[in-house]
Amino acid sequence: MKSIPLLLLTGFLIAGPASGQEKQLDVASDSQKETRVQPKIPEPIPTTVDLRSMLTDHLLKNSLNYLDDAGKRRGKAYQQGDWEAYSESVRQHVREAFGEMPFGTAGGPLNIRVVSTYETRHCRIENVLFESFPGWEVNASVFVPHGKGPFPAVVIPVGHSGKQYRSYQIPAQAFASLGYVAVLFDPPGQSSEKQPGNDHFYDGVRTFLTGYSSQRYFVLDALRCIDYLETRDDVDMSKGVGMTGVSGGGYTTLFATLFDTRIACQGPSCCITSMADHPVGDAYAMCPESMWSGRIAAGVDEIDILLAGLPVPTLYMAGKKDEVFKIEWTRRMANNVRKYVTEAGYGDRFRLFEDEGGHGYSLPQVEQYASWMNRWVRGESERPVPHLDPADFSMLDYDMLKCYPATEENIFTLNRAISRNLRSQRDPEPGREALRKAVRKVIGTPLHTGNWLVSDPFLLWTQNYHEVLFSTEQLEIPATLLKPADGYLTQKSKWVIYIGEQGRRKALETWGPATQLSQMLNTEADAVHPLLLVPDLPGWGSSRPALTPYSLVGWGSMDRLTAYISCTLGDGVLAMRARIAANLVQFLIREKNVDARDIIMVGRGLGGVVAMLAGAACREEIGGIVSWSSLAGFQSLAEDEKYSWPSTAFLPDVLQYFDLPEVISGLDTFPVLVLNPLDAQKHPLSSYEALSLFSRTGENVQIIPGCQDMEALKQIEEFINNLNRTEERKK
What we know:
Elements: H1 6-15, H2 20-27, H3 51-79, H4 83-98, E1 113-119, E2 123-131, E3 137-145, E4 153-157, H5 166-177, E5 181-185, H6 207-210, H7 216-229, E6 241-246, H8 248-259, E7 263-269, H9 302-307, E8 314-319, H10 327-343, E9 350-355, H11 363-376, H12 411-425, H13 432-443, E10 451-454, E11 458-460, E12 463-472, E13 475-484, E14 495-500, H14 504-508, H15 513-518, E15 531-535, H16 558-568, H17 573-590, E16 599-604, H18 606-617, E17 624-628, H19 635-639, H20 660-666, E18 672-675, H21 687-693, E19 701-704, H22 709-730
Parallel strand pairs: 4-5, 4-6, 6-7, 7-8, 8-9, 14-15, 14-16, 16-17, 17-18, 18-19
Antiparallel strand pairs: 1-2, 2-3, 3-5, 10-12, 11-12, 12-13, 13-15
């Protein structure tokens, strides 16, 4: 056994209680005093940013830059008279993000079923069911005016709520009293009748994987309501229909207008501002359906959605006391819209109405929009709208609006079907180069440039402890490096990059798993000590995002905020982490002259996904990859009814190009070890499940399901030792 280094022992003596000998030295003459050098404890290398806000600031800053560029392009297009081409580019982007939207002549059978009918003071209520997507039913409450038709019609999409509430059923009654057939229907999820499998957040984020915005499931329902109205003899469709809604219902209205020319005028309420104000500027906890892949990178602001509806006349309604869509933001946006529509020659087709209330749809808004429809739907601009007295309208019992839609088909099941179709189209055994291209399509192309700062060493048994700061892509990555000291660093020493989703402190502190891999206490002559590098990738460890105000609400969290905004940038947080890990690998190879075969990546939790993707994206063939207690496949997040992984695990667009088993299949040109793969609920796969999922892997891939932590560490150590033995045999 080798002795513990003298320097370390000296450090312990100096730091501990004074011995008798030390007391003697203290009183000796100057010429007799010994010089003691206290080993300097490495401190974190100062960063130029606050790591706690680095990721959030990075995402918001990039978003604002894209939105600013979009504003310049928009202004130029309208000034030069190219607004139609600009609007068409917005509509095309939305169509691609939404995917197939079968309505009108392209829509399937409606399969209409009448559920119930009620007579009320102002109208007759008919509750009906009809299909939007096959098997997915719209629960429509149709408010039919008394008297003889045919009547003009208005579609009222409900916001992120339920049609039983005041902002929805009172306006529907009021429109019927003014002679309009009003179709009121619920969105998926929220307080509606369509809840199972339709949670906006839990199920909405699943659509990131397939690349189709969950907004399509809100909008197609609205379009199919127009299809339904066309089947009624008591509805006059000769001049089209109106569509209006508040909050999420207004948002549905704006998008529906981009698809359907049967919408004669629209009346969105309390639903948009410039994204630079909200939700980006205030870091609001938005819903995933509005944050589809690449949206902000493409420069599609909320104002673009409104303008792309031109020349459809738009009455935008806002509450002066709206707590979310603040009136000063709305006024600023409206002023810009007025300027653009005037430049386009449609100045009379946009108007802002400011309600005295807050975030809701009021009777004064009904009056304003009815007047707007009288002009654009009836063709009777002078037709008066009587004052609507709130005392004349009462809340209906919820049972009078229930339709009891089938819930077998929902966002979850429809997106699952898309994921299965994508799987059937992919090559299950991509070649190495095809895999590299596919991974780079999703995570981006790694760089090999960066800045590397390292502290002075602190001797820790057989290892020198260093603090490191790696800077790349305007992000700063703190790390810990354990490098074998003189006498322990040999040609057999590998670089082990350990990536853990819980951060380097959890990986290292109190004999953490990464520390154990360092072999720091092993002084045997034949021991092989690695160079262990443990980084905190963006959002993990010391760069875990600090809270922002809206993360406190029930639907908010920093995980959701960073996942959703990064998705709109076309650069999901998980993609960023994988690319930065690949940057680090290529930096070591090209700038630090490390042999690629001497680099082993070990990832735990989502760090395992990062390691796999980083290894696949690198041009060089590294020494090996270990995935430990990590997600077995993205397909399970789309396939399984329940999941336990964070929103950032839902890598945007990934299933259009590959899944993790295909990555592992394509990585069999070098050793890969998969330990304890986990399903969507973080349950270990059984041996049968693991062998079935990874059935196409080559001889260089080893899968060990159900592996406990201590056994996993032994397997990783053996994996590293086997790489050394293999190299020795080759030599």
